[in-house]
Specification:
The protein is of the alpha/beta class. The chain has a single domain, classed as TIM Barrel (Alpha-Beta Barrel). Helices cover 38% and strands 14% of the residues. The chain has ten helices and eight strands. The protein has helices at 18-27, 44-49, 84-110, 117-124, 131-140, 147-150, 171-180, 201-210, 224-237, 263-271, and strands at residues 3-4, 32-35, 56-67, 70-77, 184-187, 214-218, 240-243, 280-281. Strands 1, 2, 3, 4, 5, 6, 7 and 8 form an eight-stranded mixed sheet that branches. The protein starts with a strand and ends with a strand. 46% of the residues are buried.
Length: 283
């Protein structure tokens, strides 16, 4: 089995509709795909309706959290999105996403960048507007030459001149909310020593104590030494390690399935959940 547990559609900051994401996943030879849009589950139904024969869909989400002033992302799987406490938190996160992006546009305009809020909303399309949409609007407006240039200290990188921080959801609380909703959480792309997502071992141990189920070990942004360290850490904490492409659709080589999750880790994910939301197959 080829299993990819991290992908995005245009329900958040991917560029392809959920139906196209699942079609491309099957064409890429995947057997299992998790759809994990940022802070929204609005793509689940479209993906399920378009699910091609032979592909299993794992409903998921990528939750935006804040830990000691830094961004931290958690992948949640197989939870009930209508669970009251989690649903309320997701509503608050999405509202903050809109305010955050609008404030970044205001800061960009104050810096002389001719970026339109209306265009940012058009690029977002769905309910989950984020920094990538602001960055794309910056490229379109000629403010920067590339998305990478937008994500620098001059512009909208963490701590940049036009940056606004995300909603301050505590990651340990997020783990508990997903567990209470019957699901399980995996720490997304920790990137040891390489970015604002970096977490020390002690922080990961705290999340494990809160109920974290796994760590995303094999990710396109992780160097071999990162993967070895994270794999050892996960094993020491009794967590499973996943592999995922973190697909957004914009790369010319279409990296769906470039990194995959081993079958035992996928089975461990399934057994770590307790709710009624299960992987979906075509009917």
């Amino acid at each position: 089995m080829r299993i990819d547990l991290h992908s995005h559609s245009d329900a958040s900051d991917g560029i392809r509709p959920p139906a196209e994401v699942v079609r491309r996943a099957r064409e890429a030879g995947l057997d299992v795909l998790a759809l994990t849009d940022h802070d929204t589950v609005s793509g689940w139904d479209d993906a399920a309706r378009a699910l091609p024969e032979g592909l299993t869909l794992v409903p998921g989400i990528e939750l935006s959290c804040r830990y000691e002033g830094r961004s931290l992302h958690l992948l949640g799987y197989l939870f009930d999105p209508s669970a009251p406490a989690l649903a309320a938190e997701l509503t608050a996160i999405r509202a903050h996403r809109v305010d955050r992006a609008r404030n970044m546009v205001d800061r960009l305009r104050a810096l002389g960048a001719d970026v339109s809020w209306d265009r940012v909303r058009e690029l977002a399309g769905g309910e989950s507007v984020g920094r990538p949409h602001v960055a794309r609007a910056m490229v379109e407006a000629g403010v920067v030459a590339s998305l990478d240039e937008a994500f620098t200290g001059d512009w909208i990188a963490d701590g940049g001149r036009a940056h606004v921080g995300p909603y301050p959801l505590d990651p340990a609380r997020a783990v508990r909310l997903v567990r209470e909703a019957g699901g399980a959480c995996v720490l997304a792309h920790p990137r040891p020593g390489r970015s604002a997502y970096t977490l020390g071992d002690e922080a990961i141990e705290e999340l494990a104590a809160a109920g974290l189920a796994g760590i995303e070990v094999d990710h396109p942004d992780h160097a071999p030494e990162d993967r070895a360290r994270l794999r050892d850490l996960a094993a020491g904490l009794g967590l499973f390690g996943t592999g995922s492409s973190d697909y957004h659709g914009e790369l010319p080589d279409d990296r769906l399935g470039r990194e995959t999750t081993a079958v035992p880790a996928y089975e461990a994910l399934l057994t770590s959940t307790s709710g009624t939301i299960r992987p979906l197959t075509s009917t």
